[in-house]
Amino acid sequence: MSSRTIIHVDLDAFYCSVEEKRDPSLRGKAFAVGGSAEGRGVVASCSYQARAHGVRSAMSAATALRLCPPLIMLPVRMAAYREASHQVMDILRGYTELLEQISVDEAFLDVTALIGKFEPGAREDAARDLALDIQLRIQEELGLSCSVGVASNKMVAKIATDFGKAAMRGGNTPHALCLVPPGEEESFLAPLSVTALWGVGPKMAERLNTLRIGTIGQLAQWPERDLVRRFGKHGHELAQHARGIDKREIVTERESKSISSETTFARDVQDWEQLRETLVEQAESVARQLNGQGLSGTTIKVKVRWTDFSITSRQLTLTQATTHLAVIVEVAVGLLATLWASEAEAPIRLLGVGIGGLSPARQLGLFDDPVSENSAGEELVVDESAHDGPAHEEPAHQESSGAESASMPSAAESARREERQAQLRDAIQLLEARFGAQVVRVGSRLPPCED
User: Fold this and answer.
1) Run means of pLDDT, 10 residues per run, the chain, 451 residues
2) Which domains are present in the chain?
């Protein structure tokens, strides 16, 4: 099988680049896009001049200003960034329809068909020329800079982009290009830190370091069988990735994975009623988005960021998809209650609720249960997949007894009752709208039947 050619495109300091295009006087200055320090906002993006002072994305605005007092803080203008992103993606689709947009400022392109037209000895130069052409068009037509990685698969192409950016230091826009020829993936990766690999976060890196594995090359030499024994399925993936193997195809249409709502408090909150009210408001937002998009979901998740910036989240998967607010509220409140209690009711900096497992909503029968009778034994998962600080040591587990699982049946039962009542109200409203206000009456008030 011939090698693929994958290009990874990453717009450089994208939000800041859009702001510089709007206001050229910002060029060469230390500035950031994000929330204000007074509102406990965070940096969404920062110029490379700001990065030279230690400012980074996801850093609190207050910390950024301490590191760089002359830092200019600008508000987020998502509409402008989305429009610029659409323009970039339109340019990329001009090269191939095999495009996978993974964020507002990143995308993969499979250009195997284009490069395959060249003789084998000329394909490396052709891939480099194509990457340069992409950079040039985005720069000339949109005034935006991007860095590009080229390789035989998605993972190595992405790492190549990051490697190219890191090599272009000095406080200037990188506009980097890094190409990894087919067959050289493993040697390219070998000297890099294991943290460059997908799926290796701080915790996994720490576990690998206990085995004296610090580089990807050292990981590639470790017996795969032992990695599988220690890390399960993830061990197999680590072994494959360390050798530069990634067989994932381009996904041309990325479906929405989840819908969520989050709130960062101006001051850390330790009051249950305030937390509950915030969670209910967030659940209402999630339910509106679900219904507005004609979707339903099965996995309800609560996310908490503590005062030390660590993040912990818990989720419950229902046996049947739901769209109803009552179900989301009851499950989310139950999850938050157990999560907060497990942390001795510690102050909370950020609170969020979301729903995943999305699919097109279907019209349930009038008395269908959104949560089946055995849902009290559902798997309760402590999800540590997303964290930007020292996460709490809480491995995933399945609840079968104890106070935590005992609290869930009442929440599920209440959710079922609310769901059935909501369905009944909806059905009555539909009938009354179509056939009149008196079409549905209480049975005891009906006149007796005539023989």
Assistant:
1) 88 95 95 81 91 90 94 92 94 94 91 94 96 97 97 97 88 90 97 92 90 97 95 91 93 70 88 93 91 86 85 85 90 90 86 88 49 34 35 31 36 56 52 45 44 39
2) 6-12+80-242 (3.30.70.270), 14-77 (3.40.1170.60), 258-434 (3.30.1490.100)
Please give the model's pTM, rounded to 2 decimal places: 0.61
Interatomic CA distance for residues 350 and 58, integer angstroms: 14
User: Tokens 């965070």, residue?
Assistant: 42
Would you name the residues annotated as active-site residues?
106
- CA-to-CA separations, 307 to 203, 234, 261, 267, 382, in angstroms, rounded: 20, 31, 19, 10, 19
Per-residue 3-state assignment (H helix, E strand, C coil) for the chain: CCCCCEEEEEECCHHHHHHHHHCHHHCCCCEEEECCCCCCCEEEEECHHHHCCCCCCCCEHHHHHHHCCCCEEECCCHHHHHHHHHHHHHHHHCCCCCEEEEECCEEEEECHHHHCCCCHHHHHHHHHHHHHHHHHHHHHHHCCCEEEEEECCHHHHHHHHHHHHHHCCCCCCCCCEEECCCCCHHHHHCCCEHHHCCCCCHHHHHHHHCCCCCEHHHHHHCCHHHHHHHHCHHHHHHHHHHCCCCCCCCCCCCCCCEEEEEEEEEEEECCHHHHHHHHHHHHHHHHHHHHHHCEEEEEEEEEEEECCCCEEEEEEEEEEEECCHHHHHHHHHHHHHHHHHHCCCCCEEEEEEEEECCEECCCCCCCCCCCCCCHHHCCEEEECCCCCCCCCCCCCCCCCCHHHHHHHHHHHHHHHHHHHHHHHHHHHHHHHHHHCCCCCCCHHHCCCCCC
Residues 238/227, Cβ–Cβ less than 8 Å: yes
Do 123 and 275 form a contact (C-beta atoms < 8 A)? no
Rg of the chain over all Cα atoms, to the nearest angstrom: 26
Closest listed residue to residue 45, CA positions, set 62, 22, 64: 64
Nearest of 66, 70, 58, 59 to residue 30 by alpha carbon? 70
- Whole-angstrom distance, CA of residue 184 vs CA of residue 306: 43
